[in-house]
Amino acid sequence: xxxxxxxxxxxxxxxxxxxxxxxxxxxxxxxxxxxxxxxxxxxxxxxxxxxxxxxxxxxxxxxxxxxxxxxxxxxxxxxxxxxxxxxxxxxxxxxxxxxxxxxxxxxxxxxxxxxxxxxxxxxxxxxxxxxxxxxxxxxxxxxxxxxxxxxxxxxxxxxxxxxxxxxxxxx
Length: 171
Hints:
About 10% of the residues lie in helices and about 40% in strands. The protein is mainly beta. Strands 4, 5, 6, 7, 8, 9, 10, 11, 12 and 13 form a 10-stranded mixed β-sheet that branches. The protein has a 3-stranded antiparallel β-sheet with strand order 1-2-3, with no helix packed on it. The protein is globular. The relative contact order is 0.22.
């Protein structure tokens, strides 16, 4: 629960998969420092959990671009990625530990497998309001602080666009 502490309101956030973090001002990033920790931006974040459900993905290098993932592009405040079938792009804002996505656009390919989970992934991205990063793990949380998406760093940078699809630009 929130605690008053000087100029900042402090709160403790805890999840079952990540140890409780120290009390930190809400204006500070939710990052637990670690040696060799990837940056939030310019890192490919591969989806591992959608709510409480594990996301089954193939680990083969040839198809990693079609696995649900995203990359925050530093300087541009643009995010791009894949829902598993369709690519998407959006704008994002980071302010301390707060993270928001807006103006999300997505391709319209027919997805015979995973179409329902792709829609749930994109809907949860829209609900994201904060993040918690610990080492190579990233947890995105909703307004109530509840984890809605979990990722692992792949450090592959931004994947190249498919040749048969025009690049997506959020409005």
